[in-house]
Design a protein that fits this description.
Helix content is about 20%, strand content about 35%. The chain has one helix at about 1-35, and strands spanning about 35-40, 45-50, 55-60, 95-100, 105-115, 120-125, 130-135, 145-150. It is globular, with a radius of gyration of 20 Å.
Length: about 160
């Protein structure tokens, strides 16, 4: 009887430590995802920050912010909603609705691809490699594409919508 009680007491302390460790790890992971990330092709940088209780990401830097044909800031020309096509890519929310998962990843979000005008379900996590792994998909993650983003090597100057 005493041995059973001792096991229960030890198990309860172990459980508390595990919960504290998970909470601490989740807080560290949350902080790790904040900030600027360069897209795989290096053409844009996304700034990920809290938006309410979720995470969002906005385009805050473009390698080529001007449309080569017009000399004006690039706009969301591929958006299926014609009323949204005039909005500038600079400051465009590209990631949204991400909520934390118990394992430190983020899920339940969406990613918008301004090159195609398509929006996909998405999840993301910061890998052991320090890179942001973002998966956009239709239906289930198996049917999708991954984007691996890196931190910029040097500070970038934010584009400013005009």
């Amino acid at each position: 009887m005493i041995a059973c009680a001792a096991v229960l007491v030890l198990a309860s302390f172990g459980g508390t430590s595990t919960v504290r460790a998970q909470t601490t790890n989740q807080a560290a992971t949350t902080q790790a995802v904040y900030g600027w990330w360069l897209t795989t092709d290096g053409k844009a940088a996304i700034n990920i920050a809290p938006c309410g209780t979720q995470l969002c990401g906005k385009v805050e830097w473009l390698k080529e912010p001007l449309d080569p044909n017009t000399g004006k800031p690039k706009t969301d020309i591929h958006n299926p909603d014609a009323t949204l096509r005039p909005r500038q890519v600079c400051d465009l929310t590209m990631l949204g609705n991400f909520t934390p998962n118990a394992d430190g990843s983020w899920g339940g979000g969406w990613i918008y691809d301004p090159a195609s005008g398509n929006t996909y379900k998405s999840n993301m996590h910061v890998g052991d490699d320090g890179k942001l792994h973002v998966r956009g998909f239709i239906g289930v993650p198996l049917f999708g594409r991954s984007e691996i983003m890196t931190r910029p090597a040097a500070p970038l100057t934010a584009c400013v919508p005009s």
